[in-house]
Write the structure tokens for this entry.
Amino acid sequence: MADQSRVRVRTPWLLALVVLAAVAARVGLVLHRPLWHDEAFTEWAARLPSPNLVAALRRDSGPPLFYLLERPFARAVTGRENEALLRVLSLAASLALFLAVPTLPPGRARRWWIALAASSCLVNLYAAEARAYALLALAGLAIFLLGVIAAPTPGRLAALFAAAAAALWLHYLALFAIVAALALAVARRRWSAALALAASFAAFVPWLPVLRVQPPEAMAWTREGPSAALPGFVSALGGVGRIPAPFGLAPPGAFVAGAVLGAALAVLLSAAALSDHSVRDAALFVLIALGLALAVSLWRPVAFAGRAEMAVLPVWMWAVARAAGERRSIAVFAGLSAAAGLAATLFVSFGPHPRSTQASAVSTVTRLSKPGDRILAGPGFYLPALVAASRGGLAAEVSALPASDAAHPGWFVPATPGAAEELQIAGWMEALPPDGRLFLLLPPSHQTPGVMRTLFSRGTVREIVRQPDGVLLIWSASAMPSS
């Protein structure tokens, strides 16, 4: 009896320590990790007026709601010192997951939910990124709870419709979660919930013309087949997952540990689902959604491990927490999963987060340039330069090299500059005022003999910075000989 008392006393303190460590890691990443390319796109797109945003997304990917929600935060950003404002929404969404506690039975299940929601590595990392995934995770959990678990009332059905419609306008991955919820609602004869979910699709119809014309090249980075994505999905179910490179270095062995724990939890949960219909529905929800993502990836890759799981990951944690409250074997593996996820989170949080070459080079140009100068920014450099200009700190005008990249700052197809780009450079050299300079921010592959011949043909070139992934050059006109 005394041992049980000591366990009861220690559990709240241990749980508080886990939550405190996780929240501290999230806040640390929010404040100190530099923005990367996709977050820079969030800031740039969110600053656009609504008609311009729609036009920009026609040539990129994704629906507009997240950028609209980010707009007041993006317009408040003035420099590196307050970039963290862009991540406020994601941090708030990650903390809102804790509010699902009352949906679980009192006691151990609720404590397990808090532990798992605090320790999941992917949840913690996306809490500190200015992208839609944390909000998508929250919406996915709401869709499941309102559409599959909760008794239908007019208020809950309205909330279900709002959550599902908002999720679709947040991220296309929500489609898989909504289809999973719809399938379960129909199977359970929850016709009012099924109707609310179907109505959410109708609310998304106005965006379909834009979706149809968005170029596949905008998602070229997702070239990952189902066989490569599946191990990442399983690892995420075990608390870790594949840590996307922009977050930093993954701890050695963490991915494999997560995969082993995820597989073990899947086996144990399948047994628990036989006697608990809520656990069964949650497991089916996750299985249907992730299975659809893998199936669609046979046609067009969308199941990118480390991201696609976010639409359903909280539902999996909810199922594990519910089952762990009743079964000791599941509680053991849930504890190991929480430990692995928190350890991976802290490893990434305290790891190095160097600023990208592109962002550093744009900062250098911001200091050196003046009105009348022109910046030609190659792939990877154009978007950071646009963001710097939108903040009002960049005096020089910005142009893309190649010029076609200006139509879609969020993505580019690497290609060596040719005659068209050499003519573009020559044209800007001619157009500069007498004291104007041309700054060139280029990947090393773009410093071709043709580009350099064009620059040296009528002026001087200085190399300011050279890194393995970037070169900063300054061109100025040669001094004219005196008469």
In short: Strands lie at 374-377, 397-400, 437-442, 459-467, 470-477.
